[in-house]
Fold this sequence. Notes:
By secondary structure, the chain is α/β, with parallel strands linked by helices. Helices cover about 55% and strands about 10% of the residues.
Amino acid sequence: MQQRDAITEQPPAIVVIDDDASIRRGLDNLLKSVGFEVELFASPQEFLQSGRPDRPGCIVLDVRFPGRSGLDMQRDLAQANTKLPIIFITGYGDIPMSVRAMKAGAVEFLTKPFRDQDLLDAVGTALEKDRTRRAGDSRLAELRGRFDTLTARERQVLWLVVAGRLNKQIAGELGVSEMTVKMHRRQVMRKMQAAGVAQLVRLADQLGIAVPQPT
């Protein structure tokens, strides 16, 4: 049974992109029969030009299209920072093509005709991958929001604490009293919701904060 995405409260939608109308209808019927919402497109270009809002889901994509292939679209989506997981389907696949697709992040590469259950299993894997990615993105956005509340001085203190400096050393580097450093340090811990230095280091690493090297 279809479940709502815990982060966005939107149900996932399965995007089917295939230039064969009969394949689109067949996949539409299959996926809807198990409760999924389905969006149908006849070409990668139609999908990319649709202005579709971001929502949970995955893409079921044919490999071969006139002009540009599904593999080209996989690259285009990555460049556009569209992160929906992709399941490739094809009647003309070969090993080098499948290797290229999987190395670029595809969830599955199914050769037509494939069993309905194989596709449904791949969709389940893709939706879980998308859910996990969205949850991580949400946590990171919340963490960045905490960091944005820090003052410029508090950020300096954070960097130096993460770099392993003691309060006395931080005071010397910043030209302030040790008491002032302790005050800023308490604020950093409170705003970042860090229980200690080890957790603060982990949070800084998740944010990709560049730590100044000792001079």
